[in-house]
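Table S4 entry, Protein kinase domain-containing protein.
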Amino acid sequence: MSSPSDCEVETAESGQPSPTMEHIVFETTLSRHKSSHVFRVSIDGQTYLLKVYRKRIRRHYDHSDREIDPFTCESSAYRRLAEGGLCDEGIVPRFYGIITDINPSHIPHLSAFTNDGHPVNAILLEYVSGLRPFDFTMFNKQRMDGFYAALHKIHRLGILHGDIELRHMQMQPSSGRILWIDFDHAQTFVPDSIPSDWLRRFEDEKRYLDCFMEDLDLDCQEGHGNRTQKWL
């Protein structure tokens, strides 16, 4: 039986922490979903976000032209985001690397994964404190333009977010920083070779954002969140 130290580690860039499980201290669980659990963790006293994924097995009814495994979707997107400089810009969290083939039976915080019958994978990201979903109380034109510009840059790298929702548009009120998060449905393409049938989906994401912003603007003017509540 393998131990936590048997897992495979890939660090995003030199000079960044090497995210081995034996050095990670679990502090708190931030969220639990069917496909993943998210934790605030620390390494050598520094705080990070660790997202651990349940493996998604392809079924006969799954579309063959898209990636369906959440870990593969998100890790592929973050590699491209980091290479393209968007992590450094701050419009997505910084990406510190991946950990694969983790045996959850050795880690109490991962006990929910032990009955899956196979190892799990994880990514290590920047922990941004105080993040809140973008809502009408935060809305202004500068921030709206910031989200549009950020999505344009993400698309320009060949990344389709795949799950455009207000809950994935976050803001840190203390700094005014805005971020796109949660790329576990993302599809990552070579930018100049995106299949024509997928180009329409990139346009669809822009239209979804148009709808969000129109509703946010109206809710802001009227002082309530009646329209945008349905998007959260």
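The chain has two domains: 4-126, 132-231.
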